[in-house]
Design a protein that fits this description.
Layout: H1 10-24, H2 39-49, E1 53-54, H3 59-72, H4 86-89, H5 95-106, E2 113-114, H6 117-136, H7 138-158, E3 161-162, H8 167-177, H9 179-182, E4 188-189, H10 191-205
Parallel strand pairs: 1-4
Antiparallel strand pairs: 2-3
Helix pairs in contact: 2-10, 3-5, 3-8, 6-7
Length: 218
């Protein structure tokens, strides 16, 4: 892997910046980062947009307490810890409805369920085959294409597999994606914490080695 953003797809970076906007309730303008050359400059530019009071309180800890409180309303599991497995908290037979209730309690979507990998692969193969069939026998190719698209929507809606394993991993996810909503006081933020979080977030989403302030953007 590389630790240079210059090697990343610009569309992937754009998608991630959209998530950053949502997490911190900020809005980037067109060409906001046109003069940015390194990840350090990008990180500083993002943090400077967060016009809130700086506080040293730990957001991950606050997010865990909020998450645990919300979980206790939808599960009988008593001692919820960071290492507790999500599969133990939410059995498959009622997992979708329980996660929906959890999201209602939290006040935001967490997006932690997905279909079985084998179903995704089969539909992906059907989709690829449909593209080929359209040029050979369109009367077969087009129905196959429609079937694959509908299939993806169905399996994503009813998927029961967890993308994450533990409560701790989920805590980190909601801290990243819903930073202000995770804090006890959403009118504050921890500047040092956000700086570290952004580096990990970009590294993870863009499949890069650990980013540094000197990592080149473009």
């Amino acid at each position: 892997m590389s630790n240079e953003l210059i090697n990343s797809d610009p569309l992937d970076i754009e998608d991630l910046l959209t998530k950053v906007e949502k997490s911190f309730d900020i809005k980037f303008v067109d060409n906001e980062f046109v003069d940015v050359k390194t990840f350090g400059e990008l990180s500083d530019r993002i943090i400077d947009k967060i016009n809130l009071e700086n506080s040293d309180s730990c957001t991950t800890q606050q997010a865990f307490y909020k998450l645990r409180k919300a979980m206790l309303k939808v599960t009988d599991y008593g001692n919820i810890k960071s290492e507790t497995l999500l599969s133990e908290l939410f059995p498959k037979q009622n997992r979708i409805s329980k996660i929906k209730k959890l999201e209602d309690n939290l006040g935001f979507k967490i997006g932690i369920l997905e279909p079985k990998l084998i179903l995704t692969l089969l539909l992906f193969l059907l989709l690829l085959s449909s593209f080929i069939l359209i040029f050979i026998e369109w009367k077969i190719g087009i129905p196959c294409f429609i079937l694959s698209i509908v299939g993806f929507k169905i399996i994503n809606k009813f998927g029961k597999e967890f993308k994450l394993k533990t409560v701790g991993e989920l805590t980190e996810k909601i801290t990243r994606e819903h930073y202000l909503k995770s804090r006890s006081n959403p009118k504050t933020f921890n500047r040092n914490e956000v700086e570290i979080m952004l580096a990990k977030w970009f590294s993870s989403e863009l499949i890069l080695d650990d980013l540094t302030k000197e990592s080149k953007l473009g």
